[in-house]
């Protein structure tokens, strides 16, 4: 049942994003920012953890999970460092995932030799 819930929740999130792309004039970057901000707001309201418990990877893999990660990092850093935590918390929390994405993308570019579109 965990796989089914992850599949339908993740699919619903992706379908809603596709509807926003098709039916509005929102650009992909704005939709991605909306997802990150929605994840942070859900985390702030205390709704993200029960949602992620139910949906599993369907909630954490889309950008909602990144927004949650950033919010939790800032919240923890503010408790630890005070005002400076606002600036360092998100960077510390997101550094590993962002670094891994950059490293793996670089390695993939070596393997597959991408070409520019004409």
From TrEMBL:
Organism: Fusicatenibacter saccharivorans
TM stretches of this protein: 6-24, 31-48, 91-112
InterPro entries per UniProt: SpoVA
Name of the protein described by the UniProt record: SpoVA/SpoVAEb family sporulation membrane protein
Keyword annotations from UniProtKB, A to Z: Membrane, Transmembrane, Transmembrane helix
Pfam family, one: SpoVAC_SpoVAEB
